[in-house]
Amino acid sequence: MSGAGAVTTARPSATGSAAAPDFPGSTPKLRLEHVRKEFIVRDAAGGRGARKRFTAVEDFTLDVRAGEFLTVVGPSGCGKSTLLDLLGGLTEPTSGRILLDGSPVTGPGLDRGVVFQQYALLPWRSARANVEFGLEAKGVGRAARARVADEYLDLVGLTAFADRYPHELSGGMKQRVAIARSLAFDPEVLLMDEPFAALDAQTRESLQDELLRIWRTTGKTIVFITHGIEESVYLGQRVAVMTPRPGRLQTVIDVDLAGAGDAGPSGDASRTDDGTADHSADDTGGDVRSSALFGRYRHEVWSALHGSPTQAQGAAAGTQEDAHV
Ligand SMILES: Nc1ncnc2c1ncn2[C@@H]1O[C@H](COP(=O)(O)OP(=O)(O)OP(=O)(O)O)[C@@H](O)[C@H]1O
Ligand SMILES: [Mg+2]
């Protein structure tokens, strides 16, 4: 492992008119270019029927490279879901551009799977039929649909609930159905809005590890929104930290946890065979989340959220920060 594990990789957010590429020489999977999103809202002070502009996202510029796992963290109401809706093509930027493989996003597509903050299941369909939804849109036949749906329901631990309707499921179960649905039709890009927030800690941790495994084996590009500082560090190769409303990009923190789960003399327990970081708990009992390196990253994200991106550099592993924004 790297030993000292210095955490000094934050960079300031892009400003100015030119959107310099984050990854020169390659087309990013997703590109946000000076994205601004305004809503027209009621203006109570302006009298009856008055309206005003409300800026939810401001001058947001960021590239996401193909196969990257990017987490986005920011305070409640800072524009995270708005940003995900924009990436999903469900709304359009007021100004700026969003590119997918170099082409402007013009609407939703089967190339992007979205897990919404609020389940968004079809209430008249069973769990299995909800998971089959995207497969139907792709023209997959009935038998194959049922097989794939059952496979993904099994993955999220809901085999016994395949025939239940959404109103017969708990909040966490509904969210797991939504996750299974987004994975089942195999989109290149997964856009996930706090997908594990409603789950108990144990289920959350096992789904986090499952998501990391899926990401490593499929090469999907994942944009994952979370309130959880620890979750952002555990999952993300980079953590994009947003400012309070209107949401701007405060900073992007590179995370490299390779070696963070080392359990002593037995060696480099948290690396996979190909040398990439394996964040999940390993066979030797290494606990990535308890490592000093993990603590330093957590502290850096915490500091960025509190408005001082450089204060973490050289600091001891933080103990005072909250786990959530
Ligand atoms: N359709 C809309 N019309 C008007 N205002 C909106 C609309 N959607 C979102 N907003 C406002 O934009 C801001 C950002 O909302 P958004 O849902 O993106 O925040 P968020 O970061 O996802 O918050 P949370 O962490 O609580 O989910 C909020 O102030 C919200 O009231
Ligand atoms: Mg939200």
TrEMBL record:
Pfam family membership, one: ABC_tran
Protein name: Taurine import ATP-binding protein TauB
CDD domains: ABC_NrtD_SsuB_transporters (cd03293)
Compositionally biased spans, kind Low complexity: 260-269
GO molecular function: ATP binding; hydrolase activity
UniProt keyword terms in alphabetical order: ATP-binding, Hydrolase, Nucleotide-binding, Transport
Domain ABC transporter span(s) in chain numbering: 30-269
InterPro entries: AAA+_ATPase, ABC_transporter-like_ATP-bd, ABC_transporter-like_CS, ABC_transporter_ATP-bind, P-loop_NTPase
SMART domains linked: AAA (SM00382)
Enzyme class: hydrolase
Segments of this protein annotated with the region Disordered: 1-28, 260-288
Assigned EC number: 3.6.3.36
Gene3D superfamilies: P-loop containing nucleotide triphosphate hydrolases
Organism field: Oerskovia enterophila
Keyword match Transit peptide: no
Biased composition (Basic and acidic residues): 270-282
